[in-house]
Structure prediction request, 145 residues.
Amino acid sequence: MACSDCGIVCGATLWSPPGRWRHTVRAQVSMLPGLIRAFGPRIPRLGLADLQKQRIHPGEPHWYLQAIGTSPGVRELGYGRELLRARLGSCDDENVAAYLETSNPGNVGYDERFGFAVRGRTRMRFGGPPVWLMWRPAGRDARWD
Prediction:
Protein backbone atom coordinates (compact mmCIF):
# COMPACT_ATOMS: atom_id res chain seq x y z
CA MET A 1 0.00 0.00 0.00
CA ALA A 2 1.25 3.49 -0.84
CA CYS A 3 0.34 6.45 1.33
CA SER A 4 0.88 10.16 0.89
CA ASP A 5 2.83 12.21 3.41
CA CYS A 6 -0.42 12.98 5.24
CA GLY A 7 -1.36 9.29 5.56
CA ILE A 8 -3.97 9.05 2.78
CA VAL A 9 -3.94 5.74 0.90
CA CYS A 10 -2.99 6.51 -2.70
CA GLY A 11 -2.52 3.04 -4.14
CA ALA A 12 -2.27 -0.65 -3.46
CA THR A 13 -1.15 -3.92 -5.00
CA LEU A 14 -2.38 -7.47 -4.52
CA TRP A 15 0.42 -10.02 -4.79
CA SER A 16 0.28 -13.78 -4.22
CA PRO A 17 3.48 -15.40 -2.97
CA PRO A 18 5.10 -18.33 -4.78
CA GLY A 19 2.87 -21.38 -4.84
CA ARG A 20 -0.13 -19.57 -3.34
CA TRP A 21 -1.88 -17.92 -6.29
CA ARG A 22 -4.71 -20.48 -6.50
CA HIS A 23 -7.66 -19.99 -4.20
CA THR A 24 -8.58 -22.89 -1.96
CA VAL A 25 -12.05 -24.41 -2.35
CA ARG A 26 -12.95 -22.90 1.02
CA ALA A 27 -11.89 -19.42 -0.16
CA GLN A 28 -13.82 -19.85 -3.41
CA VAL A 29 -16.97 -20.82 -1.53
CA SER A 30 -16.62 -17.84 0.80
CA MET A 31 -16.27 -15.47 -2.19
CA LEU A 32 -19.26 -16.93 -4.05
CA PRO A 33 -22.04 -14.74 -2.57
CA GLY A 34 -20.19 -11.53 -3.46
CA LEU A 35 -19.34 -12.83 -6.91
CA ILE A 36 -22.95 -13.78 -7.55
CA ARG A 37 -24.06 -10.28 -6.52
CA ALA A 38 -21.44 -8.70 -8.77
CA PHE A 39 -21.74 -10.96 -11.82
CA GLY A 40 -25.25 -12.42 -11.55
CA PRO A 41 -26.07 -14.64 -14.51
CA ARG A 42 -22.54 -14.16 -15.91
CA ILE A 43 -21.03 -16.16 -13.03
CA PRO A 44 -20.54 -19.30 -15.21
CA ARG A 45 -18.44 -17.22 -17.62
CA LEU A 46 -16.34 -16.00 -14.71
CA GLY A 47 -15.73 -19.59 -13.68
CA LEU A 48 -14.67 -20.56 -17.19
CA ALA A 49 -12.37 -17.54 -17.41
CA ASP A 50 -10.79 -18.58 -14.11
CA LEU A 51 -10.19 -22.10 -15.47
CA GLN A 52 -8.66 -20.61 -18.61
CA LYS A 53 -6.31 -18.46 -16.51
CA GLN A 54 -5.32 -21.47 -14.41
CA ARG A 55 -4.32 -23.42 -17.55
CA ILE A 56 -2.03 -20.63 -18.82
CA HIS A 57 -0.54 -19.70 -15.45
CA PRO A 58 3.20 -20.51 -15.24
CA GLY A 59 4.30 -23.44 -13.12
CA GLU A 60 7.65 -21.99 -12.07
CA PRO A 61 7.87 -20.37 -8.60
CA HIS A 62 7.00 -16.66 -8.75
CA TRP A 63 5.24 -13.76 -7.09
CA TYR A 64 1.95 -13.11 -8.92
CA LEU A 65 0.71 -9.54 -9.31
CA GLN A 66 -3.06 -9.89 -9.36
CA ALA A 67 -3.92 -6.21 -9.19
CA ILE A 68 -2.40 -2.75 -8.90
CA GLY A 69 -4.21 0.54 -8.65
CA THR A 70 -3.83 4.14 -7.60
CA SER A 71 -6.40 6.77 -6.74
CA PRO A 72 -7.38 8.86 -9.80
CA GLY A 73 -6.14 12.10 -8.22
CA VAL A 74 -2.57 10.83 -7.77
CA ARG A 75 -2.00 9.00 -11.04
CA GLU A 76 1.36 9.66 -12.69
CA LEU A 77 2.90 10.85 -9.41
CA GLY A 78 5.02 7.70 -8.96
CA TYR A 79 2.95 5.73 -6.44
CA GLY A 80 2.45 2.79 -8.81
CA ARG A 81 6.17 2.76 -9.60
CA GLU A 82 7.04 2.68 -5.91
CA LEU A 83 4.54 -0.10 -5.25
CA LEU A 84 6.08 -2.21 -8.01
CA ARG A 85 9.63 -1.45 -6.91
CA ALA A 86 8.89 -2.52 -3.35
CA ARG A 87 7.81 -6.05 -4.24
CA LEU A 88 10.20 -6.44 -7.16
CA GLY A 89 13.05 -5.44 -4.88
CA SER A 90 12.03 -8.29 -2.59
CA CYS A 91 11.87 -10.61 -5.60
CA ASP A 92 15.43 -9.61 -6.45
CA ASP A 93 16.60 -10.16 -2.88
CA GLU A 94 14.89 -13.58 -2.79
CA ASN A 95 15.96 -14.43 -6.37
CA VAL A 96 12.34 -15.18 -7.32
CA ALA A 97 10.54 -14.41 -10.59
CA ALA A 98 7.39 -12.31 -10.94
CA TYR A 99 4.35 -12.71 -13.21
CA LEU A 100 1.38 -10.58 -14.21
CA GLU A 101 -1.38 -10.47 -16.79
CA THR A 102 -2.69 -7.28 -18.37
CA SER A 103 -5.60 -6.64 -20.68
CA ASN A 104 -4.49 -3.05 -21.25
CA PRO A 105 -2.04 -2.78 -24.17
CA GLY A 106 -0.85 0.54 -22.75
CA ASN A 107 0.48 -1.26 -19.67
CA VAL A 108 2.80 -3.55 -21.64
CA GLY A 109 5.50 -0.91 -22.19
CA TYR A 110 5.15 0.33 -18.62
CA ASP A 111 5.66 -3.17 -17.20
CA GLU A 112 8.61 -3.76 -19.52
CA ARG A 113 10.38 -0.84 -17.80
CA PHE A 114 10.45 -3.01 -14.67
CA GLY A 115 11.98 -6.01 -16.41
CA PHE A 116 8.80 -7.84 -17.43
CA ALA A 117 8.67 -9.33 -20.92
CA VAL A 118 5.68 -10.57 -22.87
CA ARG A 119 5.67 -14.34 -22.54
CA GLY A 120 2.50 -14.87 -24.52
CA ARG A 121 -0.85 -13.46 -25.43
CA THR A 122 -4.29 -14.99 -25.27
CA ARG A 123 -7.87 -13.89 -25.66
CA MET A 124 -10.36 -14.57 -22.93
CA ARG A 125 -13.38 -16.59 -24.08
CA PHE A 126 -16.87 -15.20 -24.66
CA GLY A 127 -15.66 -11.99 -26.27
CA GLY A 128 -13.24 -11.14 -23.48
CA PRO A 129 -10.25 -8.88 -24.05
CA PRO A 130 -6.82 -9.94 -25.24
CA VAL A 131 -4.51 -10.60 -22.30
CA TRP A 132 -0.73 -10.21 -22.31
CA LEU A 133 1.12 -12.70 -20.08
CA MET A 134 4.22 -11.03 -18.65
CA TRP A 135 7.14 -12.66 -16.88
CA ARG A 136 10.05 -11.12 -15.01
CA PRO A 137 12.85 -13.60 -14.42
CA ALA A 138 14.55 -14.02 -11.09
CA GLY A 139 17.70 -12.02 -10.56
CA ARG A 140 16.61 -8.75 -12.17
CA ASP A 141 17.11 -5.39 -10.49
CA ALA A 142 13.94 -3.35 -9.94
CA ARG A 143 15.67 -0.33 -8.48
CA TRP A 144 15.85 1.52 -11.80
CA ASP A 145 13.45 3.43 -14.04
About this structure: Residues 2-21+57-136 form a domain with the Aminopeptidase fold (CATH 3.40.630.30). Strands lie at 2-3, 9-16, 62-70, 97-102, 117-123, 130-136.
